[in-house]
Amino acid sequence: MISEIRVKPVFCSSKSQSIQVEIKAGRQRWTASVPVGTSRGEKEAKVKAFREIQRVLPKVKKAVKGKRWPEVDRELEKLLPEIGGNLALGISLASARARFSGELWKIGKPKAFPHPLINLVGGGAHGGGTDWQEFLIIPKGKDLLEEIGLGIEIWTAVGDELRKKGILLGQNLEGAWMAKLNDLKTLDFLAEIAEDWGVRLGIDCAASQLWNGQKYSYRHVWRLFDRESHLDFLAEVVRKYRIFYLEDPGITPEELWELRRACRKTLIVGDDVYCTNPELLKEGIKKRGGNGVIIKPNQVGTLSLAGKAVELARKAGWEPVPSHRSQETEDYWISDLALGWQARLIKIGMNDMPKFNRLLSLWYDFKNPKLANL
Q1: Global pTM?
Q2: Which one is catalytic: 174, 247, 258, 319?
Q3: Can you tell me the distance from the alpha carbon of 124 to that of 209, in angstroms, rounded to the nearest whole number?
Q4: In 3D, which of 328, 330, 348, 350 has the Cα closest to residue 339?
Q5: Given a cut of 80, is residue 40 above it in pLDDT?
Q6: Does residue 174 carry a catalytic annotation?
Q7: Does residue 296 have an active-site annotation?
Q8: To 10 degrees, what angle do helices 353-365 and 144-164 make?
């Protein structure tokens, strides 16, 4: 049971400020640090500044004192608009860690490990020369160590090649390479990489960042699309470059449904359109708006609500994809959750080694570990 709560400021990978929550339960103390998103969906739980958190903390302490997870989450959800998703999630995660003695993966009964979904080249709100936000790969190896190692090797080779061509701009918030290439030229470049290394390609379009209220505006390829022509454009891209994974290609479930119909072998994944919110996801499932959903617990505020979204996705035959945020801390709880939730994919930035290392540590702790079938 929670007897004490402290909140401390910490800095994210981007040098922006976030929070770490520390709770006392019994004789032990448990912590959880909360990341920050750069391109946040409009329907995400709000983030509160540290000074605001200090103001509401006494009320939160009163509500959760003497309670255990998941009862803690029910109390936090009543207060969520007032206290913010970052404080709620920090308390939720720390109390769940207390419940599972620090081993959050025990939230489920893991049978296999997720494959890493790695951001190679970036753009959009994260910085870079493309309108789309992420160009991703899924390595294929005999074990997790080989897949992570292959991802690092490809990332290094891509950086070297861009540097040789004189088009490297640096790295963005997630450690992805930024280059003097537009979206289609980036795909031309990465398609050769994918063929040479035998990996699958993915794109995070972050379409909400492209929508200007009337059209999808692509600054780097100098084109404007209405909704119908945008869907045709994306379907053509999927076919030409054999895209396996397509995230946030539209701003409505209906658009994701149209792409799902047109690209039957592609995983069509919603992020900003669902924001890990079970109610939004229910509506999306009714409208068949995709076949996958990004799971970012800080979008919705508690571990219980994120877990409900995972359960809804799985029952509908959708793919839940646990994901980091662009401004991360060294905390690795998303790795535990991806394993516990039996996800087949996990998004991790190349600048976020603690999460890779946590998965590897668990891999070698398990008897006869295996990768999920994908």
Answers
A1: 0.97
A2: 174
A3: 8
A4: 348
A5: no
A6: yes
A7: yes
A8: 150
